[in-house]
Amino acid sequence: MSEQLKQHRDQIDAIDEQVLKLVNERAKLARAIGSLKDDGVIYRPEREAQVLRRLQANNQGPLANEAVSNIFRAVMSNCRALEKELSIAFLGPLGTYSEEAALKQFGLGRSAIVCGSIDEVFRTVEAGQADYGVVPVENSTEGAVGLTLDLLLSSPLKICGEITLPIHHCLLSKQTDIANISHVFSHTQSLAQCHEWLNRIMPKVTREAVTSNARAAQMIHDLVSTDGTFAAAIASKRAAELFDLNILAENIEDDAKNTTRFLVLGSHEVAPSGQDRTSLVMTSKNIPGAMVQLLEPLSRHGVSMTKFESRPSKQGLWDYVFFVDIEGHQHDAKVKAALAECLERASFLKVLGSYPVAVI
Ligand SMILES: C=C(O[C@@H]1C=C(C(=O)O)C=C[C@H]1O)C(=O)O
C-alpha cells in the first residue's frame, strides 16, 4: 500500500469516527423529538422534505444532490425508526417499482407489508394494519393509473406525500440469448412503456400481461417446465437480483425519461413545507361551461394547476369526476381563498391532501 493511500484511509477512518458520533447525536435528538409528539404522528414528510431541500441547496459537491438525498434519507429513516418503526403497505411481490418507491421515501427503517393489489394497499391502511401505503398514480408515458384515482374518490385516506421514480426496465430471463425468447410477461403499463422496443427487437414474441412486473419475474423464476426456458419478463434490475434472472437488455423503455409518480397515503394531514401540492377531486354542475366556471377562482387567485384528469364517475353515463392538482398548500392564503370559492361552485369537492412536492 502506498504511503499516500494509507494516509487517505487513515483520514477516512478519522472522519468516519466523527460522522458516527454525529449521527448518533442526531439520532438521540430524533428520539427526544419523538417523545414530544403528543398526537402520535411520528412521520413528518414536510420536515423531511425541508431537511433534504436545505442540504441540497447547501451541497458543495463532489456528491450530486441525488446522492446527498440518498444518504440523508437513510439517516432520517433510521432516526425515525428510533421514534417508531413505521409499517408501509405497497403492491408486491418484492421487486416491484412500488417497493422501490417505498424504499426511496421511507428507507429501510420500516417494516414492509406486501399487498396483492392496489385495492389491498388502500384497505390495509384504512384498517390501520399499516401506517402508510404507497400507490402508483401516473406514469409519464402511459398517463393516469385509473384504479388509484377511483379508489381515492371514495377513500377516507389523505395524500401525505408524492414520490417520483425514474423507471428503467430490463428484459429478464433464465435464457442468455434474446433470440430464444418466444413470450414476454409484464404489467400492462410496462409492456406499453416498452412497446416500440419490443416491436423493433422482438416483433414476433407474444406479450402477456400479469398483475405486476415483479410477479412476471417471479413467474419466470418459478417456471420449471421447458416452457420457462423461452419466457422473459420486463421488470427492474432489483427484480433480476431477487429472482436470480439474467439481464438480457437494459433501459428498454421507449422514453429515457420514463418516470412514475407514486402517492403516500396515510390517515393524517400534513403541515406546509414551503413547496407543496394539493390534490382535489370534484364534479361540476351539469350545465354548459360549468367546468371553466368551477376552475376560474384558481386562476383569479394566482393558483397554478399542475394536473387535470377526468374519470367516468360510474354514477351515470357520461358523468365525470375531475382530479385536479394545484400548486401550494390548502392552508396557504391564496389556495384557501380559491378553494372556498370553488367549493361554492362545485356540486362535489374533496381535498385529497396537501403534501410536499417530491424531492429528487
Ligand atoms: C425527528 C423528527 O421525526 C422524524 C424524523 C426526521 C429526521 O430524522 O430528521 C424528520 C421528520 C420526522 O419524520 C422530526 O419530526 O423532527
From TrEMBL:
A Pfam short name: CM_2
**What pathway annotation does it carry?**
Metabolic intermediate biosynthesis; prephenate biosynthesis; prephenate from chorismate: step 1/1; Amino-acid biosynthesis; L-phenylalanine biosynthesis; phenylpyruvate from prephenate: step 1/1
Where in or outside the cell? Cytoplasm
- In which broad location class does this protein mainly occur, judging by the first location in its UniProt entry? cytoplasm
Catalysed reaction(s) here are:
prephenate + H(+) = 3-phenylpyruvate + CO2 + H2O; chorismate = prephenate
The record ties this protein, via SUPFAM superfamilies, to:
ACT-like, Chorismate mutase II, Periplasmic binding protein-like II
Boundaries of every ACT domain copy: 279-356
Under PANTHER family, the record lists: PREPHENATE DEHYDRATASE P PROTEIN, PREPHENATE DEHYDRATASE-RELATED
Instruction: Write out the entry's keywords from A to Z.
Output: Amino-acid biosynthesis, Aromatic amino acid biosynthesis, Cytoplasm, Isomerase, Lyase, Multifunctional enzyme, Phenylalanine biosynthesis
Q: Which GO terms describe its biological process?
A: chorismate metabolic process; L-phenylalanine biosynthetic process
Prephenate dehydratase domain location = 87-267
Name of this chain's protein: Bifunctional chorismate mutase/prephenate dehydratase
Q: Cite the Chorismate mutase domain residue spans from the record.
A: 1-87
Tell me, what is one Gene Ontology molecular-function annotation carried by this entry?
Answer: chorismate mutase activity
Q: Where is this site: Essential for prephenate dehydratase activity?
A: T260
Gene source species? Methylotenera versatilis (strain 301)
- An example Gene Ontology CC term for this record: cytoplasm
Could you tell me the superkingdom of the organism this chain comes from?
Answer: Bacteria
EC number assigned by the record: 4.2.1.51, 5.4.99.5
What is this protein for, i.e. what is its function? Catalyzes the Claisen rearrangement of chorismate to prephenate and the decarboxylation/dehydration of prephenate to phenylpyruvate.
